Amino acid sequence: xxxxxxxxxxxxxxxxxxxxxxxxxxxxxxxxxxxxxxxxxxxxxxxxxxxxxxxxxxxxxxxxxxxxxxxxxxxxxxxxxxxxxxxxxxxxxxxxxxxxxxxxxxxxxxxxxxxxxxxxxxxxxxxxxxxxxxxxxxxxxxxxxxxxxxxxxxxxxxxxxxxxxxxxxxxxxxxxxxxxxxxxxxxxxxxxxxxxxxxxxxxxxxxxxxxxxxxxxxxxxxxxxxxxxxxxxxxxxxxxxxxxxxxxxxxxxxxxxxxxxxxxxxxxxxxxxxxxxxxxxxxxxxxxxxxxxxxxxxxxxxxxxxxxxxxxxxxxxxxxxxxxxxxxxxxxxxxxxxxxxxxxxxxxxxxxxxxxxxxxxxxxxxxxxxxxxxxxxxxxxxxxxxxxxxxxxxxxxxxxxxxxxxxxxxxxxxxxxx
Length: 418
Known about the structure:
By secondary structure, this protein is an alpha+beta fold. It has a domain of 61 residues. The longest helix has 29 residues.
């Protein structure tokens, strides 16, 4: 029998949309039920009388918490639509002209208005073989929804570029420094040594299909339809690449970087802390390794750090307590917030590996300083009414890249002996 959480009349709270507020209240109630059931389970274990029914009850409530978190995330996604307020009148007029021309292209294949706009703008992208740029408002809507769906994109630094590669210089050896007296001679210092990290923008595509009936229906908002068809596909592909992509025709994920034990850390590697047990937390004081992971990060990075893991790993950690009996995992304080672990925000990334022998299932770090995402400006759409008759395909592409930009800003927890 599935576990159900009793609901009460919604409480009025300023600043929360009713649906967000209800989902958040249900989550808080589920967490209280979880703590009560888990305390009962632990008490039974201390009496050396493990109760299978209690174990199942705790797991069911944990699943219910995950479902509530997913519901809150879905509400946040629906609200991730930028508004036109505050834009200049002439900018709005140009945007409407582009939007009207783009809609004519999508509905009927008439590309002449779009060609005229791109020619007038001296756009290098006016070649119809490569598709046409979507309106700026639609591009912003896609970007906003990607940030809402993709956990790593919401944490990392994001930079827009107009070229195909972004190069970021960094100093491998700085100038010599030292202390001198007021009248002492100043010895000549050595020059700094610079190198550069390259972040190429790779092509990501989706190909939603539409029927002639949908395209002929004037009541259908084609911007919403196209965004809804591609945002989840783009976000899923991006999310996997940002975590574990190999860098071949896709961004390079942070888990694809070389790793070393944190005591032997050097630039170009990510440091890890080992749990000491293959595919598991330590049998005694399991949460201590999370503390070790936190303090493996330097204080300058720690103040803005987040935990990153998938829901299954969260389910294991949700049962941990500190020495005062307080649960380390806490639900979001607000309907728009994140769950926290030991006081730090926790991002749910389903592309993180499960707990297994030698897996790197948990990451902790300042991802805004540690990971860089580059977006080449422009999302393109090419209408194809021929390849899959009677359907019309819309070959939609964007260019995106990514990689570690500061190897000292992210630490990993390895579920192994060393």
